[in-house]
Design brief:
The protein has 334 residues and is an alpha/beta fold. The chain contains 13 helices and 14 strands. The protein folds into two domains: 2-151 and 239-278, Bacterial extracellular solute-binding protein, family 7 (D-Maltodextrin-Binding Protein, domain 2); 152-237 and 281-332, Bacterial extracellular solute-binding protein, family 7 (D-Maltodextrin-Binding Protein, domain 2). The chain is globular, with a radius of gyration of 20 Å.
Length: 334
């Protein structure tokens, strides 16, 4: 048995869990269906399209990646289990939607858990992120190929501008079905309503909720600026959207194809970080000008204080493995 080759901490971790018998036979052609739930042209497509280009190039054309946007393969809530069953090959999933399947992910969902983007990338692309990927594979048999871009969720609503934490009091806001996010918005004084991603546009349009938070690019790509007129740069939740692969599809690849996939994922993740980092302020400018949203940059002091209590409460409640991960994340900022 030989391990697939890769570079970097995350790639090295993946190489330890993907093993196939070496063969001298010509590589069989393999089709990989890669899905995501957001609209074409979203941040997900930046990662998916670059991975498609690189995987096909690095494999010498023996891998054919088919991109399936807009929940064609599965919804984001369904995709993780579908990959475990082998009915979906690859999928890009926002990390908070992984938590119901692998609760340790909630450590990265905690509000204000990263002090800066440099801190986030040091954690995810270093030994901590590599250890996390190994644990996820051991528990779920899925392969986390790249973490990609780390962004912030911006808050938008149709009721009033947000300048302080008091301004969110009582607002009915959509949140994903994630306990950390629900508890955080409760701590901020809002009235969170858990809804699947697919139900969010309708809920906003009908007034079932009056606001939500999303990665900046999704507010534009989903045209939520047409529904909500107020944009608050809270940066309360960090988000990233890893590219996952099923064991079934990885087991179809020969040794060279595995290496090609891992290299493509690493390079696509780096491209995603650079490209989306460049775009964020441009998109915020679009939302405030062409999109007509009133932008505020709230005083974060009360939000951070409330968030710290949420962090401590979850660390105390989730067990030693969770507590240890939080301590390692915090130590990495020093």
């Amino acid at each position: 048995m030989k391990q697939a080759l890769s570079t970097g901490a995350l790639g090295a971790a993946l190489a330890t869990v993907i093993t196939l018998a070496a063969t001298t036979a010509p590589a069989a052609e393999v089709t990989i269906n890669l899905g995501y739930a957001a609209a074409e042209g979203s941040a997900y497509s930046v990662l998916a399209n670059k991975f498609e280009e690189l995987a096909e190039a690095h494999s010498g054309g023996t891998i054919d990646v088919k991109i399936r946007c807009c929940a064609q393969l599965a919804t984001e809530d369904e995709a993780f289990k579908a990959m475990q069953l082998g009915t979906v090959d690859m999928y890009i999933i926002t990390h908070n939607n992984v938590s119901p399947h692998f609760p340790l992910m909630d450590a990265f969902v905690l509000p204000y858990v990263f002090q800066s983007k440099a801190h986030a990338y040091k954690v995810l692309n270093g030994p901590i992120g590599a250890d996390f990927a190994r644990k996820l594979n051991a528990d779920t048999r899925l392969h986390l190929l790249t973490y990609g871009f780390v962004g912030d969720r911006d808050f938008y609503n149709s009721v009033r501008p947000i300048k302080t934490m008091a301004d969110v009091e009582g607002l009915k806001i959509r949140v994903p079905k994630n306990q950390v996010m629900i508890a955080t918005w409760e701590a901020f004084g809002a009235a969170p309503i858990p809804l699947p991603w697919a139900d969010t546009p309708t809920a906003l349009q009908t007034g079932a909720v009056v606001g939500a938070d999303n990665g900046t690019s999704f507010i534009k790509s989903q045209k939520f600026y047409e529904i909500a007129s107020n944009l608050a740069i809270l940066e309360h939740f960090t988000y990233f959207s890893p590219l996952f692969a099923s064991s079934r599809i990885m087991d179809k690849l020969d040794e060279a194809q595995q290496a090609a996939v891992l290299k493509a994922a690493e390079e696509a993740g780096a491209h995603h970080r650079e490209e989306m980092g460049r775009q964020i302020e441009e998109i915020r400018g679009f939302l405030a000008k062409e999109g007509g949203m009133a932008r505020t940059d709230p005083d974060k002091a009360d939000f951070i204080k409330a968030a710290q209590k949420v962090q401590d409460d979850f660390a105390a409640d989730k067990g030693e493995g969770f507590k240890d991960l939080i301590e390692r994340i915090r130590a990495a900022a020093e």
